[in-house]
Design a protein that fits this description.
The protein has 14 helices and 2 strands; from the N terminus they run ααααααββαααααααα. It has a two-stranded antiparallel ribbon with strand order 1-2. Strand 1 and strand 2 form a beta hairpin. Helix 6 packs parallel to helix 12. The longest helix has about 30 residues. The radius of gyration is 23 Å and the shape is globular. It starts with a helix and ends with a helix.
């Protein structure tokens, strides 16, 4: 069998296994339960599942959608998530290595040659798969619970912070020409000034967190659950819609983001006045890759956070969730600033279509649509950019 298709099958199977794990994450994480222990069990009778019951997709088919022990039905969500994850992983693999949409990834045979084992693009591909799995988990949880557990984007960000500079340190260049557009897989800080600006932004975040922990900065929406009714059965969407002091809370968040913004500006100013364009030119490439990851993170976080703040000030209701801030920040850490801006501006077009459908459906039931989860649209925008960022840039630059 051709090496390309052998790895296609492997990535498809890997995606199915990841989908099985995502089912655990989707089920347990919103409830605050461990995703490691206890082992998988039937949610109805609590009986532990045998290994062959956990085979992705096939296990559900073998059991005919019912628990082996209590015969209660098993949600069809499980095989669907596994199959969708497998299809997305395999589709991304095919797009990257069998089409000319992302030429920087090269070809699978070349990537696996002895001289390319460490310098090839497979580490970047693995990081993109990790981001894709994170986006899928965040999407499904946000769609159901109107929350994005911060563990998901934090972990994706951590993988980018370690993995992408490491790939550069091992010798990966990960760039190629796509016509008059450079297909770049690893974000880089353009120069020493950008590097110092990124460092200033991180220092500002660290200082804001310290002041928050000390109680000098106040946590926003700390009293949100005081607006629950007596039965306490409201959904997250209902609590957000009912909270009457959203504008007041944005002032707290403006104080928090002011220090990262100030640090960013100071870093850029100092870098420019010290002529760090040239003075840091000899630093290792992985340092600039780390700076690029940080710049992407700050870009993603800033875009959503300022949209959240000014949208809330304008309309008096919480415009976007903090989970969305962290999600686009994680996307920025993996894809870089330019791709993150593209994803951010693609997301509303998808969101508006779904919102229109929800308005129609809500109108039929005489129930206004008050809150929609935005994480799925950010995730969809990121996936579009991962696949077709060069085509999008061609459209923009003409």
């Amino acid at each position: 069998m051709d090496l390309f298709w052998l790895f296609f099958i492997f990535v498809f199977g890997l995606g199915a296994c990841v989908g099985s794990f995502l089912n655990v994450v989707i089920y347990r994480l919103p409830e605050g339960r461990s995703i490691v222990t206890p082992p998988s069990s039937c949610p109805q009778c609590g009986h532990g599942l045998a290994w062959h019951d956990n085979v992705p997709v096939l296990g559900w088919l073998w059991l005919r959608g019912k628990c082996r022990y209590c015969r209660n039905p098993i949600s069809i969500q499980y095989p669907i998530v596994e199959a969708v994850t497998a299809a997305l992983f395999a589709g991304l693999y095919y797009t990257y290595f069998a089409t000319d949409l992302r030429p920087a990834f090269g070809q699978v045979p070349q990537m696996l040659e002895r001289d390319h084992l460490l310098t090839g693009t497979w580490p970047i591909f693995v990081i993109h798969l990790f981001l894709l799995g994170s986006l899928l988990a965040a999407t499904l949880i946000d769609a159901k619970y109107y929350i994005i557990p911060l563990d998901i984007p934090w972990l994706a960000t951590g993988v980018a912070l370690v993995g992408l500079p490491a790939a550069v340190a091992l010798g990966s260049t990960a760039s190629a020409q796509a016509g008059d557009i450079t297909d770049t897989l690893i974000p880089f800080a353009a120069n020493g000034t950008a590097l110092l600006g990124a460092a200033g932004g991180v220092a500002g975040i660290a200082l804001s967190i310290v002041l928050l922990r000390m109680g000098i900065f106040k946590r926003s929406f700390a009293d949100e659950h005081a607006y629950l009714s007596d039965d306490g059965h409201e959904t997250t969407a209902e609590v957000v819609a009912a909270y009457p002091h959203a504008r007041r809370e944005m002032l707290k968040e403006l104080m928090f983001v002011s220090l990262p913004l100030l640090g960013l500006l100071i870093g850029f100013y100092v870098g420019h006045t010290m002529d760090l364009h040239t003075r840091l030119a000899g630093w290792p490439s992985w340092v600039f890759a780390l700076g690029g990851v940080v710049c992407g993170y700050l870009t993603g976080a800033g875009l959503v956070w300022f949209t959240r703040i000014f949208g809330t000030l304008a309309f008096g209701k919480e415009a976007m969730g903090l989970g969305d801030v962290h999600l686009l920040a994680a996307i920025g850490a993996v894809l870089g600033p330019i791709d993150t801006v593209l994803a951010f501006f693609i997301a509303p077009f998808m969101g508006l279509k779904i919102y229109a459908v929800m308005m129609i459906a809500g109108g039929k039931k005489d129930e206004p649509v008050r809150v929609i989860p935005y994480g799925p649209f950010l995730a969809a925008g990121a996936l579009v950019v991962m696949v077709s960022r060069n085509e999008l840039l061609h459209l923009i630059v003409g």
